[in-house]
Design goal:
The chain is of the alpha/beta class. The chain has two domains: 103 residues, Enolase-like, domain 1 (2-Layer Sandwich); 199 residues, Alpha-Beta Barrel (TIM Barrel). The protein has eleven helices and 14 strands. It has an eight-stranded parallel sheet with strand order 5-6-7-8-9-10-11-12. A three-stranded antiparallel sheet has the order 1-2-3. The chain has a three-stranded antiparallel sheet with strand order 4-14-13, with no helix packed on it. Helix 1 crosses helix 4. The mean pLDDT is 96. Keywords: Isomerase, Magnesium, Metal-binding. Its EC number is 5.1.1.-. It holds the Pfam family MR_MLE_C.
């Protein structure tokens, strides 16, 4: 039976304001792609990201441009050849996975051999702010075992000191979102090491990170904006210690699985992360993240309203998705 596709733009309020070094937002803007064969429905969600030149209209148009090929039954592997990595391909790819699972009765977890599924400890993200405000955020979440702290400004040492003192028992990931420079990275890395930081994400701008090969890594450094697909990895060997895999960057679960496996082959540790989206966007990532060293799938925890049914979060643990949600 011919597939039918629908594309919808949706907005979900963020609980408060989410701030990183590039700006702030108060709602999560997502695109939902739904595929139906008449009896079964599969769906996927993506988050267009301005950092990569994506807009809500542009991503929706990119999905609509694939309507004929999708409704004619394009496969996930063929999709990799005709669409670039990014949010639009992610929404289609995840919808195809979900539809295939519904049609076949084989769960996605089984199809990708994600055996022994378990709940995962996810980081919880603290927004960028003045040190005192960030300390208050950290203090309120000091019970969580893993915090991800947005930094990337001129006063990062004070921020690091503030959050580590406010949450002394939490492991902490720093996410600079490309906000450091050649002039301050060595001192910032040393200060982070002195304060027991577990990991630092993307301290320098993508494409301007060559110096990472020639400086000490007293704290492991994780590529985020510098890595999208498996083909990016070899150039990062010696620069980074870990890679952050996000479905909206890789262009779906199909490509993300290849990226994860190749990263392992090259000796990188793996983080599975997310944009700020709903449980529908997190669901395939929870399957991908089984066995990852770091998990950052807290998107729904940052929202004022999530989809129902959503993922089950208990404290800092997120459980694999129920098939009523996805997969």
């Amino acid at each position: 039976m011919t597939r039918v596709i629908s594309v919808e733009a949706e907005r979900f309020p963020i609980a408060g304001t989410f701030t990183i070094s590039r700006g702030s937002k108060t709602e999560a803007e997502v695109i939902t792609c739904t595929l139906s064969d008449g009896d079964n429905r599969g769906w996927g969600e993506c988050v267009p990201y301005k950092r990569y030149g994506e807009t809500m209209d542009g991503v929706r148009d990119a999905i609509e441009a694939m309507r004929r090929q999708i409704e004619d039954g394009i496969s996930r592997t063929a999709l990799l050849d005709v669409m670039p990595a990014g949010a639009a391909r992610n929404a289609i790819d995840c919808a195809l996975w979900d539809l295939e699972a519904k049609m076949s009765g084989i769960a996605v977890a089984d199809a990708i051999h994600a055996v022994s599924l378990s709940a995962l400890e996810t980081a919880y993200t603290l927004s960028l702010g003045e040190p005192e405000a960030m300390a208050a955020q950290a203090r309120a979440n000091a019970w969580r075992p893993l915090l991800k702290v947005k930094i990337g400004g001129d006063n990062d040492m004070a921020r690091i000191r503030a959050v580590t003192e406010a949450a002394p028992d939490s492991r902490i990931i720093l996410d600079a979102n490309e906000g450091w420079t050649d002039d301050n990275i060595v001192a910032n890395l040393a200060f982070a090491a002195e304060h027991g930081i577990a990991l630092i994400e993307q301290p320098l701008p993508a494409g301007r990170d060559a110096c990472l090969r020639h400086i000490a890594h007293p704290v492991p450094i994780c590529a985020d904006e510098s890595v999208h697909e498996a083909k990016d990895l070899e150039a990062l060997v010696g620069l980074y210690d870990a890679v952050n895999i996000k479905l909206d960057k890789s262009g779906g679960l199909t490509a993300a699985l290849t990226l994860r496996d190749r990263a392992r082959e090259l000796g990188f540790e793996v983080m599975v992360g997310c944009m700020v989206g709903t449980s529908l966007a997190m669901a395939p990532a929870v399957l991908l993240a089984q066995g990852a060293e770091f998990v950052d799938l807290d998107g729904p925890l940052l929202l004022g309203r999530d989809r129902q049914p959503g993922l089950v979060y208990e404290g800092s643990l997120v459980s694999p998705p129920d098939r009523m949600l996805w997969g």
